[in-house]
Amino acid sequence: MSNISENLERISERIFAACERAGRKRESVELIAVSKTKPVSDIREAMRLGIRCFGENRVQELRQKTAEIPEKLHWHMIGVLQKNKVKYLPGMVEMIHSVDSLGLAQEIEKECKKHGISMDVLCEVNVGREESKGGVLPEELPGFLSEAVKLSHLRIRGLMTVAPIASEAEESRPIFRSLRELLESMNREIPALSMDQLSMGMSGDFEVAIEEGATLVRIGSAIFGDRHYS
């Protein structure tokens, strides 16, 4: 077996076990294989093993890879998104995870309206209040969602967060629990919302995220190996 095959087998077992511990069905969690910086050959190997959902951080890299891979896949934009790059995404990605301002939401609305489509989006929340990360602060979330939900070409499906780097996965549990509680409270407070997606958990902490309610886990290096940035 290839390393990717072995890695995916282990991850599949760990996702199943985490679901069992949480009393959840395995199908309630979707694995997003984060292929940023990785070659198309790695994506094709993952495709051969049954993976159809991939996440990318940069629009330019996403455009290059979708041009090389004509097969129907479920592409997710998970990285920082600049407003001037939004125009490339309608029809290319199924979901944008990193909506962190009303201005960005309005730009997505404008571009999707041009194409006559709707886009599934997640609001990125900076639960850990890290200055180095984007995301709406928890106290800003009600105001942001109250306005964003009015945009007719956006489907606000849920929330996303990136937990602070920690030495132990367990340290991320309060972050993930807080995001789940925010989703539940926003659904109660804003009747127009019916959010059902929590994008949280990466290679180092996805099991804890699943135990706290993650529906989308973003796993890259644990599948494809360490990244080497040029």
Question: How would you characterize this protein structure?
Answer:
With 230 residues, this protein is an alpha/beta fold. Strands 7-6-5-4-3-2-1-8 form an 8-stranded parallel sheet. The relative contact order is 0.16. It contains 8 helices and 8 strands. It is globular and about 45 Å long.
Helix-strand makeup class: alpha/beta
- Order the strands across the largest sheet as they lie in space: 7-6-5-4-3-2-1-8
Query: What kind of sheet is the major sheet?
Result: 8 strands, parallel
The sequence of SSEs as H and E is HEHEHEEHEHEHEHEH
- Strand tally is 8
Seen as an oligomer or otherwise, the chain set is single chain
Number of helices: 8
How much is the radius of gyration in Å?
A: 17 Å
| Unreliable spans | none
Q: What is the global morphology?
A: globular
Mean pLDDT: 96
Strand fraction band? 15-25%
Distance between the termini: 29 Å
Helix content: 25-40%
Keywords:
8-stranded parallel beta sheet
What is this entry, summarized?
This protein has 230 residues and is an alpha/beta fold.
Q: How are the SSEs ordered, and which strands pair?
A:
Elements: H1 3-22, E1 30-34, H2 40-48, E2 53-56, H3 59-68, E3 74-77, E4 95-99, H4 102-115, E5 119-124, H5 141-148, E6 154-160, H6 173-189, E7 197-199, H7 206-211, E8 216-219, H8 221-224
Parallel strand pairs: 1-2, 1-8, 2-3, 3-4, 4-5, 5-6, 6-7
